[in-house]
Amino acid sequence: MDSILLLPLVALLVVAISWLWDYTVVRLIWRPHCIAKEFREKQGIRGPAYKFLGGNNGEISRLKEEADDQVLDNLRDHNYLPRIAPHFLKWRAQYGEAFLFWYGAKPRICIFDYELARQILSSKSGHFLKNDAPPTLVALMGKGLVLLEGTDWVRHRRVINPAFNMDKLKMMISTMTGCAQSLAKELEDVAAKNKDRVTEVDLNQKFRELTADIIAHTAFGSSYQLGKEAFQAQHELTEITMATLFQVQLPGLNYLPTERNRRKWRLQKNLRDTLMQIIRSRLSSKDGEYGNDLLGLMLGACASDEQGEASSLSMDEIVDECKTFFLAGHETTSLLLTWTVFLLSVYPEWQERLRNEVLRECGTDQCPDANSLGKLKEARNKNLFLYTI
Ligand code: HEM
Hints:
Helices cover 66% and strands 3% of the residues. By secondary structure, the chain is mainly α. The chain folds into 2 domains: 22-128, no CATH class; 156-346, CATH 1.10.630.10. A hairpin with a 2-residue loop joins strand 1 (98-103) and strand 2 (106-111). Helix 6 packs antiparallel against helix 10 and helix 10 (224-244) packs antiparallel against helix 11. It is globular.
């Protein structure tokens, strides 16, 4: 063969072999072996053995599936950890309060010591960084506040902080109660159609719709319909991501045009295009006002930066923050509501106390507002509505 052709081929082969060597031997075999040995011998931290490529993902999925199949027979049993994280409990019993385990070839240390957890979470040393998120998660939630570190995190935080000051949050309360009232009305209407005014409803689904509605309104204001479309695409992407979270991720698999990947790419494009559409229409608003919702405040902060103030976010970064807020604020709050209603049904005495308090402080025909919320001491003490970032 002509040496002009042969040389590039040889070079290509050398590159491919060294990549394969680095990926399989160094990253998938040698590195996990050295890390496990180092922790075991130098710090006495042991853990379940690393399995080639998949780490402990197989065992985690199996234990979680077994736990999911168990029936919740004692509703007042508050020992939930065996259902949520059975793998951690199993390894804690085997290896102690701190152990090393593997998400694929990524090492993780789990600690059960609260004091240690407090020190790590409040440490300013810069030693404890956030986990490197898998590409599927980054595509889903964007490189927003939850995944950012260091100066980028500070810059984003500076732009977003004003959206969460107390006055702005208070202004959002009427939007929130409005959404909650339409859900209450919908449920009443459904019940009214039945003879005995009783009906069965999947409340978890209803709360998902409610929290999506609230985030779409508070983040995107007048553009909330488009916001909900973006949200639907993100919801479908979440399902794909969660279904593959513990599967072995071979490099390159994400680029193959499989049916799942093609659906994923389509949804990612829809999500981005819809968010861009919302942002563009806001930027072209004639009066130069961007609005009082989260998006408006982000755009306003960036516009003020063009005049030489504060920090700014690029268009892509704003899109990423929109994705982050949808994801961070949706499932968390809807599950909190479902869980609260579940607990109130298990403890009717508390249901009665809280209902009496609401009726006492807000009356029968007044909707709760910022002032009356402050007076709901029983509910606050029970942490029934308390969350600020
Ligand atoms: C019950 C409800 C919620 C719970 C339990 C919850 C939980 C958490 C936790 C544990 C973190 C820290 C994550 C980490 O640093 O690794 C976090 C951060 C965050 N959450 Fe929530 N969250 C809730 C509601 C919300 C809502 C409603 C929003 C927005 C609309 C939101 C947006 C965020 C953001 C942006 C961050 C990152 C903050 C930063 O790093 O500066 N969360 N949340």
